[in-house]
Amino acid sequence: MTTPSCPAKPRPGDRVAVLSPSSGLPGILPLPFELGLRRLREEYGLEPVEYPSTRKMGSSPQERAADIHAAFADPAIKAVISSIGGDDQITVLPYLDRELLRANPKPFFGYSDCTNLLVFLGNLGIVGYHGGSVMVELGRPGAMHPLTADSLRAALFTHDARELTPAKETGSVNDRWEDPRTFDREPAMLPADDWIWHNAGRVVQGASWGGNLEILSWLLMADREILPAAAYAGRVLFLETSEEMPGADAVYQILRNMGERGLLKQFPALLMARAKNWSFGSPLGAEAGEEYRVLQRQSVLRALAEYAPGTMAVLDVDLGHTDPQLIIPYGGQVRVDGVARRIVVTY
């Protein structure tokens, strides 16, 4: 696998595509979407451009692929940003034109189900950006979290090396997006523990690969876009889990199966996200939520001990389904310095 190259970045005043490659939730939950669009304009100076399926629930994979093609092929569009995730983007991949996308590289921002497109673009040699959806991060009630806003700004506009810093507070509890009162105040936050370092004591630098653990497991099951294990040798793995809140056993089993495939041992370093530990379907209290995180950490370390005992790991990194959220370059360089306890990404 060749290391992907970073496409040109937008500048304030540029047009950016806002797509729904997964779910068309902007059509039924417009409040966070409109707020996110407004912040793109007012706080980042970008002009969002919507496409036919951006607000369409139940759009076909072909329709979504057509929007992706139109956004990447348009020279006036300088970046592509997902509205939100979903659960069926894998069905879009067969309809994507590899040559069109390779010939028209653009920065793509998304996470969760958008792991599909990030993996696809990475295989074409295009660096993407894990994070920064319109409805969740840009549409956060009350205000964007400063850590999220600064990370997104750096990823959008620069190619700089940037040190990631642990959040001092974290939140997982959400209010209903259907209720306008939700957007009158910021979400409740709790103090955040520092990152946890495992097998530290050396420095690892390499191109990143990974994303949402559940989506990666689907790609593995479908034998879609996953290269032979040796292609990932020396890369920095990063993983996160979603609001579906998979149990510790499920997390271990996915990692175990990646280990059986020979994948885990290829990565000398792993960044594991601070797990989202509350959802409307599983509204855990503070104590139960912390126990959920503890059990997930244990499952990750168990899998590493069995399949990649030499891998350095940093647990509870603020990436993925976290608030605040740090943007991770997908295929870009990541330096994990276990001696100095520092993580530096290059956007």
UniProtKB/TrEMBL annotation:
Residues 16-131 form the LD-carboxypeptidase N-terminal domain. Pfam families: Peptidase_S66, Peptidase_S66C. Gene3D superfamilies: Class I glutamine amidotransferase-like (3.40.50.10740), LD-carboxypeptidase A C-terminal domain-like (3.50.30.60). Coiled coil: none annotated. The keyword Glycoprotein does not apply. Keywords: Hydrolase. CDD domains: Peptidase_S66_mccF_like (cd07062). Residues 205-336 form the LD-carboxypeptidase C-terminal domain. Belongs to the peptidase S66 family. PANTHER family: LD-CARBOXYPEPTIDASE C-TERMINAL DOMAIN-CONTAINING PROTEIN, MURAMOYLTETRAPEPTIDE CARBOXYPEPTIDASE. This is LD-carboxypeptidase. It comes from Streptomyces laculatispora.
